[in-house]
Design a protein that fits this description.
The complex is a heterodimer of chains A (about 325) and B (about 1000). Chain A has about 325 residues and is an all-beta fold. Chain A has no helices and 26 strands. Mean pLDDT of chain A is about 85; it is low at about 165-175 and about 300-313. Chain B is built from 22 helices and 45 strands. In chain B, the strands form 13 sheets. A five-stranded antiparallel beta sheet of chain B has the order 26-27-28-1-29. Chain B starts with a strand and ends with a strand. Classes of the chains: A mainly beta (about 325), B alpha+beta (about 1000). Chains A and B meet through strand 1, strand 2, strand 22, strand 23 and strand 24 of A and strand 34, strand 35, strand 38, helix 13 and helix 15 of B. Strand 1 (about 5-10) of chain A pairs antiparallel with strand 38 (about 625-630) of chain B, so a sheet runs across the interface. Chain A: This is Protein SEC13 homolog.
């Protein structure tokens, strides 16, 4: 069910902390503790190093590709407290913007759905979340949610775009609402909503007993239901769901792993969740027709093998 | 500034007496009394037998009882006195705590009172005349770590409990006066301001020092942020200064004291470098009579006692008004009384008095010179083609090996005694393998560099220059990548002083790593459409511990615990942010946490093996290649289907036939069946007639809409967006959907016109929202257009108005109400024409009802329920996005065609008119205040309701027809304003 189509030796000098393909799946960006970001062309099985971006003064934790309608843009966040937005112009990459308004390591960065324009959010160990938007003329404005998570914010994720008048807000709301989910060292998952330009806490989700390491808002395919996954230092992954009618979220523990779970990723249709953690393993989880979450395969990266558990039929 | 240094004792605590002459060093086995004026030979010892360390010791602050000092050992307080040299007597013990005493403090106002606090959650006050029991006790929930009396006012002391501070008045009984939540982490130290009763400073594990005013305890007055936990922060007895001691993690790294001017929380004014281990305690000596300098006594875990002279320069930096600075500071090193003893052999085996070089601080603007020792510590030795072999402070030399081509070149740099203030280093080549010319050239370059950096530290610039010169001299043609200074880490201590003209101060400036989660070293991410990217550690990489660390700060201790040696041990690398890990230990990277587990070789094979391993490690970190998986089959997405599916609503049977065969190629049997089914249900012969009287349409058949509905539900559960969207493409066309939602058949429909007697504008607002609610699924504008067209011909021109919502604005006149049973209650429209009156018309109502019935029927003819229109749009959008990701742009646009368009937002210029009668701004064509058409034609002088044109230059215009006629012959404005309207060339048509 899952087959390796490419394997890239990045030649990073230190641990890799994130690797992402662009919108079209033709370019791979990786970031590492060696303070660099590397971009590879992986189209049709290639693995050519296109560029190495240097500019961070510390380990680079996370990356995000912007939607191609804004050009080839990458945002990166680092231990050096900076968020850098890189842009490719005529094959060369350069810094487009540098955001330095955090007082501690910036742990997470993500672009908003492209319908909102060029907007990105980042969460920092100083406890705050910044929402940075481009006005289109080269200037950037930032809104900061101070003290979003006491001690530190570890992850942010944008809610999918829901067209106005549609699913979640059928009435009244003429403009689509931006929402962010964040997780932090206060063991909480929080949902934030933008209201008249200000970000307000909409919901606080309590369920984890240790630092929340990652949160991921599932993509929407047109259903009113919203789903958020969160993982934590307490080895648990929790799936939070909202039926689209109110502000109540119910939760279900997906699984308790044997080590910290520090990364989650939803598939584009929002039905498969990839969990990875301190044990260097990746497991894929799928919701069955009955609404149960089952592990469908373990991707053991060390050996590059995929062991199918249930998808033989 | 280092006055002296004693190496001795197993002491854990230190205190200086009130005269400033003696210090007591208290340890587990011995208590030592040191004469600070004569540290080498005046020592008194008292051996003690205890298995517990002395946690703290303090001299009595008053000369009256100057012979007394108190120690805290485990749960007990002991009071000692010394009468003459060699005699330390224990006076009494005070027992009352049930756990270790964490701190004690003599009252500065009552000679008999001492306070002690303990982790047992009690703070006791003792009267030393009655040591049997505490004279007063205060209990808290949490154990206390510090107790400190206010230095200005009596009867006030503070205790710290984890991150909180409590203020107490012993007269006020058992509850604290104040409670201050100061820090999020444990407070290590608290110090009251020496001159203000309301101010104190706290230092904490969270890496900050905060300043507080008890009159405003909600917020700290200021914060100093450090990269490491701050052990102590104490005010200086002069100026507005503060001394901080940090706890480097794992007690490695910087063991410096910092001196701050409290006017500036960003950077310290001075750093005291010298101790090899954590500074445990520091105290001020009482200023000796007639001396302008202050002395700071420090005791470190490296078992050395140092006395630092704070001369007037430094005092001035802290805001102390010292007047004219005497020149005596220049000669400070010779004025020390025991300077001559320095060379004499130590009288005590345990003691070793060392002379330290001292440099008087001459302050240069923007840059402060460092001692050679400091410079050696800070120098960045990782320089291309130059290897630093030896840095020797005692001989003041630096030995370097340079590579020139394949030849090596040894250089000895010796620094004169007064360097860097006076004198430049000397250079000597020892191992010459290059010809004389080259050597002379190198010498010249080095000397020039040294001279350029006169009176400043120049080792690093020298090494850099040496490296680049060697490079340029290199006979090899191989291209060498010289380090680009711009790309070098800004945090590297070397670059700071030279690039920013500032002291490298890397420890302060970042928050604690304990808040930063341990970074991910593996992960998987779904990217684009159906790719799964994984990264991680190699198979051989083993974790350094059973569990994965939580925070970055855990890394250090774990690495240490496992005695894993970082692969590159750079001897003097001082960078706090060296490669990756922002930990106090410079050369640990996250990769060091993981070690290679490779096949266990015989340990006896010795050094060679480990060297090989180390080499291998440095070359290849434990990183597995990044892998890209194709997971699209898991997601039920097929690029092939996306590429080859065809969409053709006009010929559904062909479309289905084609798509069936396409589905067969990817092995989706269910889709093969689905497409055959679709072909059957979408058969042309089943097309319903337009007449509702010919029986229920096919859509109402179980194999019609119901079948589709259940199919959709199934594929929603599978999250098969591709199939969902394709079904929509067969049975749905958002573009042609312009009809209202189907009313329930039983509902009667009536249209009623009325002018509400007591009209309330708010009613309109609510009915508007009701309207939207009732329509729910349709964009408002489409809806309006629809309803409006239903109503009557005179209103039809309204539908073309660019700003439709404008028309729904409430007025008191001509309100029309359209009521359709319970689906929505009221709907008012501002009629455009003043003279247009609505009248009831039975026939119209019937006609309209028929029309609505018909649309209801049409809706039932559809195979997909229009109620879920938004869902269909979302499926289509989602699928179009996936196609886009696949690079199938044509297919993506094809799918997007079926999305029902939301009304485009108004963009661009909007013109408003000032009413020619009452000069009110008007939007639309009619003035709201005088009810006349706002825009007057310049030619016929009548109001314009239809098409109009006007000149952007002069603002005049009129009926399009009139103007066309006019400008056929004329160039000027018809009003005679003199404007050459045609030449202005900006005409905009306004409806």
């Amino acid at each position: 069910m899952v087959s390796v189509i490419n394997s890239i030796d990045t030649a990073h000098e230190d641990m890799i902390h994130d690797a992402q393909l662009d919108y079209y799946g033709t370019k791979l960006a990786t970031c590492s503790s060696d303070k660099t970001i590397k971009i590879f062309d992986v189209k049709d099985g290639q693995q050519t190093l296109i560029n190495e971006l240097q500019g961070h003064d510390g380990p680079v934790w996370q990356l995000a590709w912007a939607h191609p309608m804004f050009g080839n843009l990458i945002a990166s966040c680092s231990y050096d407290r900076k968020v850098i937005i890189w842009k490719e112009t005529n094959g060369t990459w350069g810094k487009l913007y540098e955001y330095t308004n955090h007082d501690s390591s910036v742990n997470s960065v993500i672009f908003a759905p492209q319908e909102f324009g060029l907007v990105l959010a980042c969460g920092s160990s100083d406890g705050s979340i910044s929402i940075i938007s481009s006005s289109g003329d080269g200037s950037w404005t930032a809104k900061k949610i101070n003290n979003a998570h006491s001690i530190g914010c570890n992850a942010v994720s944008f809610a999918p775009y829901v067209s106005p008048g549609a699913l979640l807000d059928p009435y009244n709301k003429q403009t689509p609402v931006k929402r962010i989910v964040s997780g932090g060292c206060d063991n909480l998952v929080k949902i934030w909503r933008e209201e008249e330009g200000e970000w307000k806490e909409e919901k606080k989700l309590e369920g984890h007993s240790d630092w929340v390491r990652d949160v991921a808002w599932a993509p929407s395919i047109g259903l009113p239901r919203s789903t958020i996954a969160s993982c934590s230092q307490d080895f648990r992954v929790i799936i939070w769901t909202n039926d689209g009618t109110g502000n109540d979220w119910s939760h279900k523990i997906l699984h308790k792993f044997n080590d910290v779970v520090w990364h989650l990723s939803w598939s584009i249709t929002g039905n498969i969740l990839a969990c990875s953690g301190g044990d260097n393993k990746v497991s894929l989880w799928k919701e069955t027709l009955e609404g149960q979450w089952v592990c469908i395969s373990d991707v053991n990266k060390g050996q590059g093998q995929v062991t199918d558990k249930s998808i033989s039929s | 500034m280092i006055y002296g240094c004693i190496v001795a004792f197993q002491a854990s605590a230190m205190a200086v007496d009130c005269t400033g002459q003696f210090a007591v060093l208290a340890g587990r086995k011995v208590m030592t009394l040191v004469d600070l004026d004569n540290p080498t030979d005046r020592v008194t010892k008292l051996t003690r037998q205890s298995k517990f360390d002395i946690s703290c010791v303090q001299w009595h602050p008053y000369p009256v009882c100057g012979d007394l000092f108190a120690t805290a050992c485990n749960q007990r307080l002991d009071l000692f006195s010394w009468t003459s040299y060699g005699n330390i007597n224990q006076k009494c013990s005070m027992r009352g705590h049930s756990r270790t005493v964490s701190d004690l403090d003599w009252s500065p106002f009552d000679v008999n009172i001492i306070a002690s606090c303990s982790v047992d959650s009690y703070t006791h006050l003792w009267d030393i005349r009655d040591p049997k029991k505490p004279s007063n006790s205060f209990q808290t929930v949490a154990g206390a770590s510090q107790v400190k009396w206010n230095k200005v006012t009596n009867n006030l002391f503070a205790t710290t409990h984890e991150g909180d501070v409590r203020l107490w008045d012993p007269r006020k009984g058992s509850s604290p006066l104040q409670y201050i939540a100061a820090h999020l982490s444990k407070i290590h130290g608290l110090d009251w301001s020496p001159d203000s009763e309301t101010n104190f400073a706290t230092s904490s594990q969270d890496g900050t020092v905060k300043f507080w005013d008890t009159s405003n305890p909600r917020q700290s007055k200021g914060v100093i942020t450090s990269g490491s936990p701050v052990w102590r922060a104490r005010y200086t007895p002069f100026g507005h200064g503060l001394i901080t001691a940090v706890v480097p993690q794992l007690r490695r790294g910087e063991n410096s004291l910092y001196l701050w001017n409290l006017e500036n929380y960003v950077a310290p004014v001075h750093q005291f470098v010298g101790h090899q281990d954590v500074i445990l305690e520091f105290e001020w000596r009482k200023q000796a009579e007639g001396l302008k300098d202050y002395h700071l006594v420090t005791w470190s875990k490296d078992q050395s006692l140092r006395i630092w002279k704070i001369d007037q320069h430094l005092q001035k930096l802290c805001g102390q008004d010292v007047g004219e600075i005497s020149d005596s500071s220049e000669s400070d090193s010779t004025s020390l009384p025991y300077e001559t003893n320095g060379s004499s052999p130590p009288t005590n085996q345990e003691m070793d008095f060392q002379r330290q070089m001292s440099a008087s601080p001459e302050v240069y603007p923007g840059q402060k010179p460092r001692t050679l020792e400091q410079e050696f510590l800070m120098v960045n030795v990782a320089i291309d083609n130059v290897r630093v072999d030896e840095l020797d402070v005692s001989t003041r030399t630096c030995k370097v090996t340079g590579m020139i081509g394949n030849n090596s070149l040894k250089l000895v740099i010796s620094f004169p005694n007064h360097y860097p203030i006076h004198g430049v280093p000397f250079f000597e080549f020892t191992d010459i393998l290059v010809d004389n010319n080259v050597m002379l050239r190198l010498l010249k370059v080095l000397k020039d560099t040294a001279n350029r950096h006169a009176r400043r530290n120049c080792l690093e610039p020298l090494l850099r220059q040496f490296s680049t010169t060697l490079d340029s001299l290199s006979f090899q043609t191989e291209e060498r990548i010289t380090p680009d200074t711009e790309n070098l880490p800004a945090f590297s201590p070397f670059y700071l002083p030279y690039s920013r003209g500032d002291l490298p101060f890397v420890k302060f400036g970042s928050r604690l790593d304990s808040h930063i989660p341990f970074p991910r070293t593996s992960g998987a991410r779904f990217c684009s459409a159906g790719y799964l990217v994984t990264f991680g550690r190699s198979k051989e990489a083993q974790k350094g511990s059973d569990y994965t660390p939580k925070a970055m700060s855990d890394l250090n201790s774990l690495v240490q615990k496992n005695k894993m040696r970082p692969h590159q041990t750079v001897p003097f690398n001082f960078a706090a942010y060296s490669r990756s890990p922002p930990t106090a230990q410079p050369d640990i990277t996250i990769a060091t946490y993981y070690y290679k587990s490779g096949p266990k070789k015989n340990r006896a094979s010795g050094k060679r093996y480990s060297a090989d391993v180390r080499e291998a490690e440095t070359k290849k970190p434990n990183i597995a290649p990044v892998k890209i998986y194709d997971s699209s089959r898991l997601l039920a997405l097929h690029k092939i289907l996306g590429e080859h599916y065809i969409i053709n609503q006009s010929d559904i049977s062909t479309m289905c036939k084609h798509n069936t065969s396409v589905a067969a190629t990817v092995g989706r049997k269910d889709l093969v069946q689905l497409w055959s089914l679709v072909a059957l249900t979408a058969d042309k012969r089943l097309q319903s007639s337009d007449d509702p009287d010919e029986g229920p349409p096919w859509g109402r058949h179980p194999f019609g809409r119901n079948l589709m509905q259940s199919l959709m539900e199934y594929y929603i559960k599978l999250r098969d967006v591709q199939t969902l969207a394709m079904l929509c493409c067969v049975f749905w066309n958002g573009q042609e959907l312009m009809a209202p939602p189907p009313p329930k058949p039983q509902q009667s429909i009536s249209v009623e016109y009325s002018t509400p007697p007591n009209y309330n504008p708010y009613h309109t607002v609510s009915s508007m929202s009701n309207l939207v609610k009732g329509l729910q699924t349709l964009p408002v504008a489409n809806k309006l257009a629809d309803i409006v067209s239903l109503l009557s011909p005179p209103l039809s021109e309204v539908s073309s108005h660019p700003n439709l919502p404008e028309l729904i604005q409430p007025t008191n006149q001509g309100v029309m109400k359209l009521k359709r049973s319970n689906s929505y209650s009221g709907f008012e429209i501002d009629t455009i024409d003043n003279d247009f009156k609505l009248e009831e018309d039975e026939e119209d109502v019937k006609e309209r009802q028929e029309q609505l019935d018909k649309t209801a029927h049409e809706n039932y003819c559809r195979m997909l329920d229009p109620v879920d229109k938004n869902k269909y749009d979302e499926y289509l959008r989602c699928y179009a996005n996936i196609l886009d990701c696949w690079g199938l742009k044509n297919q993506s646009r094809e799918v997007m065609k079926f999305v029902s368009n939301a009304p485009p937002e108004h963009r661009g210029i909007e013109f408003s008119v000032y009413c020619y009668k009452c000069s009110q701004p008007v939007r639309g064509s009619q003035c709201l205040s005088c009810k006349y058409p706002a825009f007057n034609c310049a030619i016929c002088h009548l109001g314009v309701k239809g098409l109009s044109n006007f000149c952007l230059a002069c603002g005049h215009g009129g009926h399009t027809a009139h103007l066309t006629e006019w400008f056929k012959r004329e160039n000027e404005c018809p009003t005679g304003c003199g404007c050459q309207c045609l030449k202005a060339k900006i005409h905009i048509s306004l409806q």
